[in-house]
Specification:
five-stranded mixed β-sheet, 491 residues, six-stranded parallel β-sheet, 18 strands, binds zinc ion
């Protein structure tokens, strides 16, 4: 067990956890948002982040501090906490991003970790190699090799109480990401950023992000705190959390504000395009769009950054509440409607339903069928797996309605889209209490038929009849040949 991270609550792959950060003397509840502080540009002061926004942890770049005369000396003399007047935990990046941008940097892993320790960082980062998407496999492997040697060196350095991250690379090769996860997990390092996803996020390639994170998670243990490095847009937090990411950092709140961009959970809007402010944060209740447009540049940037951060923290709270209530996947489904590329991300997440099923609680509040994607949720998969284990009578009548009066209930099971058949005694148990629209869709009916198929394959000696109310022929094609079909007509 990694003693500094404890998972408290689960929903799909998402979790509420507690990350203890000994050097800061604080415990941060995850999923957590780390606002990025640029040491040279103070859009919102760290103190304000703590007092006004409730930020418990932030991230800043130790390489920029190291390379900036004056700032470096102040940081060494006073320490980051005093310099920033920030009471929470401070994580530092190492300059890997600069390495990816400019091709070289002037520090080694040993030097930058020693520097991060010296300036009072609570979570430090080695210099990994952020390999961009789509490079040759040779390059991805060579880069990963270098990153792994540096993690092994980082492991050997005495950093006192400072936690140290083990970034996971491997470009867009899921097997390399998985191997990187396994290697990192075997080190004694503490926090696991999935790196170099920013180019994919910038191009809305959410499906590939999901594949990469799912692969890294397969390699890491369930008790490893995972940081989706560079993912700061609130639109995709629910998806990232459902995959099992625990930490997110946002430079977006400030970067977008600089370009007059206004964040919403449904995407980014340009200030010029806004006639209304679809938000009730302190900024949006104080100003009209016109008033913001008329502010001087620096004030406008500050005001937009504050709104962007409010909306970002609010989404994180909404996600945590969804995990508690057991409806995180309903929230992911909702957010997936914001952009077709988000829908691709959600559909890719559901390709990993078997992985999500392993952490998904057996019982939750209520399953809402909100789109045809719901038919692929882990709860449906789990029900189908359960059908293989249930005891079945020699002769079974399946109906999509009530049992006929002439029938013994034990021999007449109910069929409910999207789950399929189940003994009526189970009808009050999760997820069979699901709320499903009366006007159901082919995906739900097809998933129910898949359930009938699973049942028949697991119990080949049972004679099965399915009496239904006008199910379409193209859906019923999936019913195994040995099953007798009776059409009772439309309900
Ligand atoms: Zn607002």
């Amino acid at each position: 067990m990694r003693e500094q991270f404890e998972v408290r609550e689960l929903d799909a792959g998402g979790r509420i956890g507690e990350l203890s950060i000994p050097r800061a003397g604080v415990t941060v509840e995850t999923p957590a948002l780390l606002p990025v502080i640029n040491p040279n540009l103070d859009t919102l002061s760290p103190r304000r982040l703590a007092e006004e926004f409730g930020a418990e942890i932030l991230i800043t770049n130790s390489y920029i501090i190291h390379q900036t005369d004056g700032v470096r000396e102040d940081a060494l003399e006073d320490g980051l906490h005093e310099l920033y007047e920030f009471p929470g935990a401070i994580m530092t990046d190492s300059g890997s991003f600069q390495l990816a941008e400019y091709g070289e940097i002037e520090v080694t892993t040993e030097e930058i970790l020693a520097f991060q320790h010296a300036i009072g960082s609570d979570i430090g980062t080695p210099v990994d190699i952020p390999t961009p998407p789509g490079v040759s496999r040779d390059r991805a492997e060579t880069d990963l090799e270098t990153t792994q040697r540096r993690l092994e060196r980082a492991e050997a350095i005495d950093t006192g109480e400072m936690l140290v991250t083990a970034p996971i690379q491997g470009s867009t090769y899921p097997d390399l990401r998985e191997a990187a996860g396994r290697h990192a997990n075997a080190t004694s390092l503490d926090v696991f950023p999935v790196g170099a996803v920013v180019p994919l996020l910038n191009e809305y390639r959410y499906a590939e992000v999901v594949e990469i994170v799912a692969a890294a998670k397969r390699g890491l243990g369930a008790d490893a705190p995972v940081h989706l490095f560079g993912a700061g847009h609130p639109m995709m937090f629910a998806l990232g959390v459902a995959l099992g990411c625990d930490l997110f950092d946002s430079a977006a709140y400030a970067l977008y504000a600089r370009d007059d961009r206004y964040l919403t959970v449904r995407g980014t809007r340009h200030l010029d395009a806004l006639e209304y402010l679809p938000c009730s944060c302190p900024i949006c209740t104080k100003y009209t769009p016109n008033e913001i447009r008329e502010l001087p540049d620096d004030e406008r940037e500050e005001v937009l950054a504050a709104h962007n951060l409010h909306v970002t923290f609010a989404e994180m709270a909404r996600i945590k509440q969804a995990i508690r209530a057991g409806n995180l996947l309903e929230l992911v489904d909702e957010r997936a409607r914001s952009h077709p590329a988000m829908l691709d991300g959600y559909r890719t997440l559901l390709d990993h339903a078997a992985y999500l099923e392993r952490s998904d609680p057996v019982s939750k509040g209520s399953f809402f069928y909100t789109s045809h994607e719901s038919a692929r949720r882990p709860e449906v998969l789990r029900h189908h797996q359960r059908l293989e284990r249930l005891t079945v009578p020699d002769s079974l009548l399946l109906t999509d309605g009530d049992a006929p009066a002439s029938y013994d209930a034990e021999n007449c099971w109910r069929v409910e889209p999207p789950f399929g058949p189940f003994p009526r005694a189970l009808s009050k148990s999760y997820p069979l209490t699901a709320e499903v629209p009366d006007r159901t869709d082919d995906a739900a009916l097809t998933a129910a038929v898949d359930g009938i198929e699973t049942l028949c394959e697991a119990h080949p000696d049972t004679s099965v009849t399915f009496a239904h109310h006008g199910w379409p022929a193209h859906v019923l094609e999936g019913v195994p040949e040995g099953v007798s079909l009776v059409d009772l007509g439309k309900n």
